[in-house]
Prior knowledge:
The protein is an all-beta fold.
Amino acid sequence: MRQPDNQKWEQSMPKPEVATTSQPGPAPHLARDPGEPRRLTGASASLRRLAVSPCERFLASGAVNGEIRLWEIETGQCRRILTGHTSPVEALAFGDLGIRLASASRDGTIRIWSYRMGRCTYVLQGHPFPIPALAISADGERIASGDRDGTIKTWRIHPPKVQSILKGSKGGIAGLAFTPDGTGLSSADCSGSFTKWDLRTKQPEHTCEAHHGPVTAWAASADRQKIATGGQDGTVRIWDVLQCRCVQTIHLGKRPVLALTLNDEPSLLGMADGRGHAQVLPLPHQAGREPLAVKVPPDRKDGGAGAVLFGSGRCFAVAGPDRAVRIWQF
């Protein structure tokens, strides 16, 4: 750890098939035609990760060259370019208090940014492998990181210090989220497992099979009570964090899910598969109810994608391999 110096996209969208363990309630209405998206352009490399600030004024995008850009949503202008990572950005997370942005990369480092000032305040080092998963606690004082070897670490941010090391995952970590009270941590890995950890004992409380094959996408709701996991098997599962159980399964066909995002009120799920398809579904999703579907450039080289819902669920942004962020309003 150290402190630094300073075409044609005409494929048909598969209709989701749904299984649920509870009776679906009323779902919010989605406009059928979101129209043409706004495009935020100027990035220097393909974009693969997105995050929105708590005030919903800024979007952060992470690129394959390690560059992070901070976009002002209202004007579409790039306000900051954050550099320091030497490999693709694998994860981005804003703190709830809107003070910090955290990023993780294939270079094995985590960077903590004072994004309004445009500077890196800390570099956290200690993972010998790429870091595809990252989470910030509700109080903004702790970070959880997971690497490709299956090791999870929790860190105190200020001053930077490793608090715990969690081992036992059977594959690389694909997603992380602190529980609402901060005493636990949820994770998913590339073996297809979903695990809830007790940070006091540093042991797993519960582990179950989430997907038949690797977990490829992950999203936690803002209140940390709901998690979505997407798999290479083409399914999305919605999890109740407190009860540690799957409450709904959505079948999307044979396309691996590469990006997920959740909105609390109204309850919406956004997703992208990296092959030219993105959609927004109301939750709980009812069989036969059409999603809001949009086309995005397919990414057949790097396999990265980013998606985020914001603006009370009325804006859906997707990052693409053509170095642009597209924003639909519906």
